[in-house]
Amino acid sequence: KMLSPCSKVGDPRPGQPYKGGDFYAFLPDNREGQKTAMLLRKAFEHGLTFQIKSCNGEERVTWGLIPHKTSWDGGKARNGYPDAQYLREVCTVL
């Protein structure tokens, strides 16, 4: 569970409580995956990984605009692998 500082994620209601969550993402254990992991860490340190959204009057932490693979399978349609373009696309975003 990693939460980004509120001041950096565009909190819609500063000072009000919000719910966190458990967030998991997967990268291949190879050179490209390790390079991507370093870039994702930098994005996290700069408060770019998560955002706070209001849903039904409740603020919640959600993924930000950086695409993450949240499943090992299911393909691109389910935020999983295989997705031959993912590492190139996420590095472009980062």
Automatic annotation (TrEMBL):
Its EC number is 2.3.2.27. Keywords: Cytoplasm, Ligase, Metal-binding, Transferase, Zinc, Zinc-finger. Pathway: Protein modification; protein ubiquitination. GO terms for molecular function: ligase activity; ubiquitin protein ligase activity; zinc ion binding. It holds the Pfam family DTC. Residues 9-91 form the Deltex C-terminal domain. It catalyses: S-ubiquitinyl-[E2 ubiquitin-conjugating enzyme]-L-cysteine + [acceptor protein]-L-lysine = [E2 ubiquitin-conjugating enzyme]-L-cysteine + N(6)-ubiquitinyl-[acceptor protein]-L-lysine. It is found in: Cytoplasm. One of its GO terms (biological process) is protein ubiquitination. GO terms for cellular component: cytoplasm. Belongs to the Deltex family. This is E3 ubiquitin-protein ligase.
